[in-house]
Amino acid sequence: MRKILIETSARHVHVTESDLETLFGKGYKLTPKKNLSQPGQFASEERVLLRGPKNELKGVSILGPCRGATQIEISLTDARTLGVSAAIRESGDIEGTSGITIVGPAGELTVDKGVIAAKRHIHMTPADAEEFGVSDKQIVSVKVDTDGRSLIFGDVVVRVSSSYALAMHIDTDESNAAAIKPGTEGDLIV
After folding, report:
1. What confidence tens digit (pLDDT) does each residue in 60-75 have?
2. Distance CA 38, CA 1 (A)
3. pLDDT of the residue at 6
4. How many whole angstroms separate alpha carbon 72 and alpha carbon 103?
5. Which of 20, 95, 112, 189 has the highest count of CB atoms within 10 angstroms of its CB?
6. In 39-171, where does DSSP find H-type helix?
7. Per-residue burial over 64-103, b = 16 or more CB atoms within 10 Å of its CB, e = otherwise
8. What is the mean pLDDT of residues 71-100?
9. pTM for the whole thing?
10. Could you give the C-alpha distances from 79 to 55, 86, 100, 143, 179, in angstroms and in order?
């Protein structure tokens, strides 16, 4: 059975075109800095500040392209630092979540929802899912053997689409708990 690459997804935001213009100015477009493992996705040059009731986080990356809803993905440690609640959710599932203030060079906005700690997940193509014997939305575990921090991640949701590339995404808290380094791979447990 193939191994699954594990990638650390650091804090970031996804914005709508309208919110991007509020933060950076009318007609502004994101400047791609680095392509991400998922086809068509990129980290941009643009950075924003997140302001919560307790604190601020500076230099937070915006991922592109723009989306239909603004979403803020942070770790649970980040949430405590900011003084906000971060529901553990799949990307895009933002109803009933907390809001936050986002500050850019041209303006700021306060969203009333969108703050999440992303549920750990594996992106798979249909062919990958068939090879691993899993289906879309199935909950699995992934075993990681690292030097002194080996563990099994439970509650991992499988996400299947022909537009994905095989990779597991975890946040920085989870990555640090398992001493994940670039290139770390895990074994799927069904």
Report:
1. 999 999 999 999 999 9
2. 22
3. 98
4. 13
5. 20
6. 76-82, 126-132
7. bebbeebbbbbbeebbebbebebbebebeebeebbbbbbb
8. 97
9. 0.94
10. 10, 6, 10, 27, 21
